[in-house]
Amino acid sequence: MQKQDQCPRAKINQSYCNCTYSCSRHAICCECLHYHRQRGELPACYFTADEEKTYNRSIEFFIQRRTK
Q: Which residues are CB-contacts of 13 (< 8 A; sequence separation ≥ 6)?
C-alpha cells in the first residue's frame, strides 16, 4: 500500500501540490512539511511554478524572491 492510499486527503491535496519532484511524500502535506522543516527548507507549495522548477527550497531563496 502506498502512502497516498493511506492519507484521506491525498486526492484533495493533489490539486494543490505543485511539486514537480517525484517522491513518496507527493500530496501528503504533513509528511512533506516535516521533511522540509527538518532540512531547514520550505515545500514547493510556498513557491511559484518558475521558482519551484529550480528545486531550491531554501528559506533564503524564498525571502530573496519576495523582497525584490
A: 7, 27, 28, 29
